[in-house]
Description:
The first copy, chain A, is an alpha/beta fold. Chain A has helices at 27-45, 58-70, 80-106, 141-151, 178-186, 218-228, 260-268, 277-290, 307-311; strands at residues 8-13, 50-55, 112-114, 118-121, 133-139, 154-158, 162-167, 172-175, 190-192, 199-203, 209-211, 233-237, 243-245, 253-255, 257-259, 298-302, 317-320.
Amino acid sequence: MAKNRTRTFVIALGGNCILRAKERGTVEEQYRNLRRTAEELVGLLSSGSRIVITHGNGPQVGNLLLASEMAEAMVPPLPLDICGAATEGFIGYMIQNTLANALRQAGGPYKITTVVSQVVVDANDPAFENPSKPIGRFYSESEAERLRREKGWHIIEDSARGYRRVVASPLPVSIQQARIIKSMLDAGEIVVAVGGGGIPVVREKNRNLRGVEAVVDKDYASARLAIEIDADVLFILTAVEYVYRDFATPQQKALPDLTVAEAKRLLAEGHFGRGSMEPKIGAAIMFLEETDPAWERDVIITVPETALGALEGRTGTRVTR
Amino acid sequence: MAKNRTRTFVIALGGNCILRAKERGTVEEQYRNLRRTAEELVGLLSSGSRIVITHGNGPQVGNLLLASEMAEAMVPPLPLDICGAATEGFIGYMIQNTLANALRQAGGPYKITTVVSQVVVDANDPAFENPSKPIGRFYSESEAERLRREKGWHIIEDSARGYRRVVASPLPVSIQQARIIKSMLDAGEIVVAVGGGGIPVVREKNRNLRGVEAVVDKDYASARLAIEIDADVLFILTAVEYVYRDFATPQQKALPDLTVAEAKRLLAEGHFGRGSMEPKIGAAIMFLEETDPAWERDVIITVPETALGALEGRTGTRVTR
Lengths: 321, 321
């Protein structure tokens, strides 16, 4: 690690930090989980580093889409980019207030602000030809038929549970708010950004930006932001303490250290779950390959309670060049 | 106006800038209105000043509460502070993207970012003893009775149209994000803040902040922010070109210039509509009385299309000390 340089951390909170499996998604549940996460992270947040926090929005945006759909007779429906922006607002508020309270009680600096972040994606990203990210609720076959016809949605049969809307999940090209986030860090603020992967926008011929109904993976968006603000460490906090090879088999083996080359090989061999560990490893590789090699960079993948221990090399998975 | 000082403007957008009377509240309507507002404001926004934009959220938060209520059987309901934070996210996104596009086409600087703003209110504010701000839809008498019992809501009979929930509308004590907003302005960003009046929070005994189900008037929140960031001009943009005395009577008379003393006298005489011009005049007085008198300060009340003309003294109402 470079000396004499205040380190910049991007900390991506996994879904588990805000809502856990089987919870319904009440505000009380979310605050309780966030308070626990805040306790677990208070040491890391108080470490004197420059800090950006990012987060997912899967269950929250699903609930908002569902409410919007159920109320459609009375209230004009909200498209996906608008729902995403709404979750950036309210999840950001819950995070900034809960973490600020925990930091205030711990006696540390506690200035935290959420920025509503737009993420530029390429309108020619192949993901738009092949929408694959399921969002919202399950439909019957006849509902699916009607929604395809009336709204032009892509709807696929999803296992045995019914039909589900899928949208594109393009890669992030640039973070529209990266410059101001960097200057907020310079001013000593902890910044909550690219919530839910940020609001995907495409650039039109006249250079204007326009929102699209797509979902940017939050780990890739976090990596892109980490590259643009020249972060030193990208934390990807999730539900497992380590990355494993042969996960959930008798041969399962924790991987405390991974190089980019090893990560690529294991990725190609299919060791990492699609939609779970795979995008995290992909985001780690993106960050390590696209940042200035003049400084050491690390990606740490672990659970929130061991994030600080992992930074100190005592646990968790560290991915390096 | 002080020379040799880049002026700071707080521009409060009235409801009309985003949704007009009789519109349902579709996203298309909101973008169309915002594009028109952007065209009208592009001269003012390109004037080389430091700019904060604030806005209301009445119809949007009403629709969100209604959707949340209609979906209650399937999706946990969202309390008012969470709905407010959600509207800060999505209205902020629509504003930042639409204005940035207009400024980009005009060749000006176009960096705009929304911050999710919390507004500290006093838990002992008398408004909490006397909730008076109607929110959400109308209920029947029996629904009102049930909601009072089940949720502890304050519900009043609202004219002949039924029963309606009312919440407190406390005065803003301080804007939690004021310091970082000021430093974002220093970095050349246009900032969208205190949307819908900001998210009201009270300070607990241990100094932690906690969200409350209340609504801060957006003009008062704008004035409070303008005081904290030491703004030079507070624009309150609304549906009328001037403030009037004897409004909507045969004696109606436009008021191009008002001092604080005159404004107070006319306010006491009841010339300004409750819930419409009254809080704007109250906010103007607050701003002029609480800012450093070493510089000239102005409050301009007019429609968006004459905001620049009003700054140059050609139209609109100017309130001064």
